[in-house]
Amino acid sequence: MIAGRKNSLKKIVALTAFDYSFSRLIDTTDIDIILVGDSLAMVALGHSTTLPVTIEEMIMHTCAVSRGCQNALLVADMPFMSYQVSNEQAITNAGRFIQEAGAQAVKIEGGISMAKRVQALTKVDIPVMGHIGITPQSINRLGKYQVQGKTFTDARKIKQDALALQDAGVFSIVLEGIYDELAAEITQDLKVPTIGIGAGVKCDGQILVLHDLLGLGMDPSPKFVKKYTNLANETKKAVNNYIQEVRNETFPDAEHSYSLKIKKLMSNTKDA
Question: Fewest CB atoms less than 10 Å from the CB: which of 2, 61, 90, 146?
Fold first, then answer.
């Protein structure tokens, strides 16, 4: 259980996945959580923010990821306007992620303002992961993605958000883009695990977007992203090699072709 990993010596490790292939691959590791993040709007669908992705698109991708996820906890992001209107809307849409798409929990953004939503979901046995700090679905209010909690008032508000989510019943909280010291204080004061992304090393766990970790992104990465490899360059290199071999007629070669050797038969039979 993720909730039982609070203050564990074994940190919680989470990654995003948006399709079956990556899900199946990372599920063979010791990963704890696979999140079908609404970041797929930007990473997989080409939007400039997470706002345009629909619940139907999120459910489709969650279905694909669930087919490859047998070991990790599968969490699905609830997209913009799929839970904000009412408790009833939130329950109906979250239930679809559980029943139709195979998710085991959902993630929603927001603190005190979303506490009643969290409470409504947990009352019908839908586990909820919270998300505060930089909340990408609030980009039109925030104006831009920037570190949160700069002032004492802002930092206190983020801490109050965390406590409200805990009281509402979340099993963990993502802390995104907040100062290390604030994240450490929140982590120390909460009874549920914190999972950081751009929130320092003192959180109970960490999460990254898989495409960022693999260096597959074409755009500049945030400061908190560490590229563990550069598959963008490796992919382009492989594609360029493929292009050259096709045009030089060195691919496909004999090793990668099917050849049926047929002996020419000389028939001596007379025509009927």
Answer: 146
